[in-house]
Amino acid sequence: ASPSAGASSEAPAGKTITLGFAQVGAESGWRTANTKSIQDSAKNAGFELKFSDAQQKQENQIKAIRSFIQQKVDVIAFSPVVESGWDTVLKEAKDAGIPVILTDRAVDSKDTTLYKTFIGSDFVEEGKKAGQWLVDKYKDASEDVNIVELQGTTGSAPANDRKAGFQEVIASNPHLKIIASQTGDFTRAKGKEVMQAFLKAHKDIDVLYAHNDDMALGAIQAIEAAGLKPGEDIVIISVDAVKDGMTAASEGKINFIVECNPLLGPQLMEAVQAVVDGKEIEPRIVTKETTFTSEQAKEALPSREY
Ligand code: GYE
Fold it and tell me: Which Gene3D superfamilies does the protein's record reference (predicted)?
């Protein structure tokens, strides 16, 4: 390198750090923002990023991780599409002496020495926030409130946890009833398709709880096509707070959004550097998040980064 190049963007010891990152896919607005954050911050940190997109399939992620091991990258980071089934490949990385960092989604491995840290949101907490808003809204209800749920990818940490947290909180009011619950795989297309089926099967839907904005946005299309008003005829709650979701909220089509921050890149690069430097790092790094009503979404929209 020329003397001027790399002054601020190369690893101090002279050797560039190579990071292998196995991404879930490109299923949602959240994921697009997350990928950009990781790519931008790897560049800013001066790391060489080997990036792979698993198209929402665990087998593809396992292949990518094995290829990172073969290429002897310095650190492997990934966002596990589902929670189970990682022990074997994580053990292979450990045996090869390559540290692993989990971002965004967790694994259910009992052996926590298989990874250095998990950086991401508390999805149970997100589900609880969604549930609490509903409990408050219907605190005086004297009749049943019929809820349909669009779950995220089956077996994924955010789908499992957002469901569990929500259920736990709404259990305090027996009028709050989940009458149908199905996966929409975190995508707009599936959200629309499943909502169409819900509307056909149930004439009396009061509330939609979608595990992400994209599924809510797909469902809004189905609701409008059925001649109903999203946000009025059917109350809608979702998670993420990406731009398109916040826009729908500011128009009153989504009533409440729980924020899930996708900008994990800077924290991830810090953790990578610390691991390479042999420093101790916290085993759990939780992202800070808030919530938005329609009114708050309108205010926050102009300054939204993603
Ligand atoms: O909420 C959803 C995405 O794992 C937190 O995955 C992430 C979720 C996010 O597809 O939109």
Answer: 3.40.50.2300
Output the pTM of the full model: 0.94
Instruction: Return the ligand 1 atom nearest residue 242 CA.
Output: 11
User: Is the shortest distance between the CB of 107 and ligand 1 below 6 Å?
Assistant: no
ipTM for the complex? 0.98
- How does pLDDT run along the chain (306 residues), one tens digit per residue? 344 443 344 445 568 999 999 999 999 999 999 999 999 999 999 999 999 999 999 999 999 999 999 999 999 999 999 999 999 999 999 999 999 999 999 999 999 999 999 999 999 999 999 999 999 999 999 999 999 999 999 999 999 999 999 999 999 999 999 999 999 999 999 999 999 999 999 999 999 999 999 999 999 999 999 999 999 999 999 999 999 999 999 999 999 999 999 999 999 999 999 999 999 999 999 988 899 999 999 999 998 989
Is the minimum distance from the CB of 262 to ligand 1 under 6 angstroms?
Answer: no
Closest by CA to 300, choosing from 235, 221, 245, is 245
Q: Is 201 exposed, middle or buried (0-12, 13-18, 19+ CB in 10 A)?
A: exposed
Q: Is the CB of 130 under 6 A from ligand 1?
A: no
Cα 31 to averaged position of ligand 1 atoms, centre (Å): 6
Alpha-carbon Rg for the chain, nearest whole angstrom, is 21
Out of 23, 24, 27, 28, give the residue to mutate to test ligand 1, the one with the largest number of ligand atoms within 8 Å of its CB: 28
Rounded to whole angstroms, the Cα distance separating 292 from 255 reads 8
Residue nearest to atom 8 of ligand 1 (CA): 158
